[in-house]
Amino acid sequence: MKTELELTAEVEKQLRDGNWQYKKEFVVGDTRPDFVVTTETGDQVVVEVKAWDPTPENMGRAIHQAQRYKEISKAAAALAVTAAGQVISTESGGVIPAAQLLATLASLAVKLAQTKKKGPAPQPLKAPPKRVFASMPFAAQYDDTFIVAIGPAAIANGAIAERVDHSGTAGNVVSQIQTMIKAAKAVVADLSDSRPNVLHEVGFAEALSKPVIQICSTPTSALPFNVRNNQTISYSLGQTAKLMKRLDSELQKVI
């Protein structure tokens, strides 16, 4: 199975060879997808690369993320590109294997050109240099926590949110995480379920005197004592838009 770096390079080569107009890692709307493709008629398609095994669970997760990226970016369509697997189409995008990218984009462009426009397409903007590291569980139920809450809150404060499964490269994962925390202006730590990796990352960030904003969707009474007494924003899964507003306010204080 290809790494995310390898798959991203393959997707970019296809876009370049197919003479598609695209921006890589630019902000569009309230998110920063891997690619924003602009069709000849000015419609925009968000493209996210997911180097995941094509299991039913992962494909379901990818389609959910594609839908969320479309909503948050306000683009005309969104695609999640995987290394392999079946095509899962929706009204405005879907999940496709990399081999189907160019054909799908061409088909989407025709469809979007025939659709009545609801307003001008959002303009991709160069991503700001400031970074916020998201330390969190890598599980489907927390995807909206990152896409709907942490990412937009960071952008609202002139920064980009990163998490290692989304932005990391091939190699030593612990080293990647440490490098990303060192480069971050602040850390948003989701302590839900008291995951050991998140607790370790909080300790590393605190040792570097990085501001840490704790959030949690599970009972805070179950948190280990060394983080339990820190201010923690409680939130509910499914209500991440409310969490975004809280994080926006907290990030204003530290970045």
Counting DSSP E segments of at least 2 residues, the number of strands comes to 11
Q: How far apart lie the N and C ends?
A: 38 Å
What number of domains?
A: 2
Per the CATH scheme, the topology name of the largest domain is Rossmann fold
Task: Quickly give the structural class.
Answer: alpha/beta
Task: State the CATH class of the largest domain.
Answer: Alpha Beta
Largest sheet: 6 strands, mixed
CATH architecture title of the largest domain: 3-Layer(aba) Sandwich
Strand content: 15-25%
Return Rg in Å.
18 Å
| Mean of pLDDT | 93
Range of helix content: 40-55%
Q: Unreliable segments (pLDDT under 50, ≥5 consecutive)?
A: none
- The number of helical runs is 9
Shape: globular
Order of helices and strands: HEEEHEEEHEHEHHEHEHEH
Across the major sheet, the strand order is 1-2-3-4-6-5
